[in-house]
Design goal:
The protein is an alpha+beta fold. It contains 4 helices and 5 strands; from the N terminus they run βαβαααβββ.
């Protein structure tokens, strides 16, 4: 399933597409919200791996404005709960992810992104 925790790690990997290939932009996204068990320790450990600006921009693109524009140095429960919601509970079920560089489309169907490339697209 495409959750923003996964999306924040995805970049276009088509042949020759090596710059400005992150983050992939959603188009025609159908989003579902699904509750997930909160784990503050996991979020604290994962926080350094997040590309913050990309996460905030993508969350806004999908209609969520709960994250601050700048990553806070100190985290509190409210921040962690908002982060949990954005990373773990927003699911993109249908739509397309588009590379900002080469415009390669990666379709999403039933929550599963198709990241496979054709032979001529492989580096």
């Amino acid at each position: 399933m495409v959750r923003l925790i996964t999306h924040n790690l995805l970049a276009c990997h088509a042949k020759g597409c090596t710059s400005n290939n992150f983050p992939l932009r959603f188009e025609n996204a159908r989003v579902e919200l699904r509750e997930a068990e909160f784990n503050g320790d996991f979020l604290q450990g994962f926080l350094p791996k997040i590309e913050w600006n990309a996460l905030v921009d993508t969350a806004k693109q999908l209609g969520d404005t709960s994250l601050p524009p700048e990553q806070p140095e100190m985290t509190d429960d409210e921040f962690l709960k908002n982060l949990h919601h954005v990373l773990m509970e927003i699911h993109v079920e249908e739509g397309v992810m588009i590379c900002p560089n080469c415009s390669r489309n990666y379709p999403i169907s039933n929550g599963i992104p198709n990241m496979l490339l054709a032979d001529y697209e492989i580096a």
